[in-house]
Amino acid sequence: MDLKERFLSIYQTYIHRDGSDKLLEYLLSDQCDFFIAPASTRFHGSYPQGLLEHSLNVYDCLCDYVSRTRAKEMYQMNFSDESLAIVALLHDICKVNCYKQSMRNVKVDGIWTQVPYYEFEDHLPYGHGEKSVYIITGFMRLTREEAFAIRYHMGFSGNEDARSIGYAFEHYPLSFALSTADMEATYFLEGKQKG
């Protein structure tokens, strides 16, 4: 099963909320590059399908994290399969249609050569996590826990007010779990270039 097939399988198995079909229709449309976009210009997943791969990696890391006995019993992290799929698969939907492939000159063995790279061009500069929440809620409702998790998934590595992040993590444990899964996927599973 390739990455797109796996994403679709998880999405269609677990996400059944009103409007989720329209959101998936959008993701699959010609107006959206979700399934081919990179995850960044030069950091993790800076290659075609990097965003898709990252979303699936975050899903795997999140499911693994919340399945721990300690997370379930001590931290009361008992989330539905639907919530886990929504926040992990869609947390970076803010990145759709933002990366444009261009060419630049670099020296390779002393010879100037044109190589492809990605430029970031955001036509809806509404922040990061908040933009993902905004896009998703244009199609379907999120629970408050899901909205906070997506909004604060960058955790302390983002440009957020530390008090707001702390509040989100303390009051909405899915926020902490998603942020942890996002960091694990970014720093341990993904690299700058593929292969």
Folded structure, characterized:
The chain is mostly helical and 195 residues long. The chain has helices at residues 3-14, 20-28, 50-66, 69-73, 81-90, 129-137, 144-151, 162-171, 173-189, and strands at residues 99-108, 111-120. Strands 1-2 form a two-stranded antiparallel sheet. The radius of gyration is 17 Å and the shape is globular. The chain starts with a helix and ends in a 6-residue tail after the last helix. The model has no long low-confidence stretch (mean pLDDT 93).
Number of strands: 2
What is the ordering of alpha helices and beta strands?
Answer: HHHHHEEHHHH
Which bin fits the share of residues in helices? 40-55%
Mean pLDDT level: 93
Read across the widest sheet, the strand sequence of neighbours is: 1-2
3D shape: globular
Largest sheet: 2 strands, antiparallel
Alpha-carbon distance between the termini? 20 Å
Number of helices: 9
> What fraction of residues sit in β-strands?
5-15%
Q: What quaternary form is this? A: single chain
Structural class, from secondary structure content? Answer: mainly alpha
